[in-house]
Design brief:
Layout: H1 12-46, H2 57-86, H3 91-112, E1 118-119, E2 122-123, H4 129-150, H5 160-181, H6 189-207, H7 209-224
Helix pairs in contact: 1-2, 1-3, 2-3, 2-5, 3-4, 3-5, 4-6, 4-7, 5-6
Length: 225
């Protein structure tokens, strides 16, 4: 029997190339999915009206929003992990990953601070408009610093403070959504829980800007030396 033609046997290299090509798209697909989930979350929260808390539909909507946020947070943890593990970090991911994070978090906070979540003169979500300004201001400051110094060749990748900030936000916002889903008009436990979660977000987020400012000062001194 004649040996088979070696060219008929697939080599490992093309197979590895196909696998790597597929792996390259998975983290990006998860990031894109998070953008879509963030948009769905915004639509759900926007559908709540100020008098919805007297209706049976509000807890159902809040439960759906909670599930969407948790699913989006899972994709956030997964896409970065896979991109680093497989060595497929891309320009798309570097741009869209923080965009998706900010759209998810800020979208939720902006709507939770709105009048739809005020009932009988008190905020059910615990999120005040000024808190959203603090979170947004921190993100704009850090993004500006990172853009400025990375353009000058300084590494400004996310540090411990930035990662802790995202973890706290990813835990506290679902807690707020859960408190709203379980809200009873005559009860106060859900309101207190939501308020504690909201304050944890604003305090940790504001604190997380300090290490970036210190890094910027050190980098500036190093560039001038």
């Amino acid at each position: 029997m004649q040996p088979s033609d070696p060219t008929d046997i697939p080599t490992a290299a093309p197979l590895e190339g196909v696998a790597r090509s597929r792996r390259r798209h998975i983290p990006n697909a998860l990031t894109a999915a998070r953008v879509v989930l963030a948009a769905v979350l915004v639509v759900l929260l926007s559908s709540i009206s100020s008098d919805a808390w007297a209706e049976a539909g509000a807890p159902i909507t809040m439960s759906a929003a909670l599930a969407i946020f948790v699913l989006a947070a899972v994709t956030d943890a997964l896409d970065g992990h896979l991109a680093r593990k497989w060595g497929v970090v891309s320009a798309f991911g570097r741009v869209m990953d923080p965009f998706a994070d900010k759209l998810l978090v800020l979208g939720a906070l902006v709507l939770l601070a709105g009048p739809a979540f005020v009932h009988d003169g008190r905020s059910l979500s615990g999120v005040a408009p000024w808190m959203v300004v603090v979170v947004l201001g921190r993100d704009l400051l850090v993004t500006s610093i990172r853009g400025l110094y990375e353009a000058r060749g300084v590494d400004f990748s996310a540090g411990f403070a930035g990662k802790l900030k995202m973890i706290v936000q990813s835990v506290a916002i679902p807690v707020i959504l859960l408190a709203l889903a379980l809200h009873q008009p005559m009860g106060s436990a859900s309101v207190v829980t939501a308020r504690v979660a909201a304050w944890s977000v604003v305090l940790v987020t504001a604190w997380s800007a300090a290490p970036y400012v210190r890094r910027a000062i050190r980098a500036e001194r190093g560039l001038r030396a």
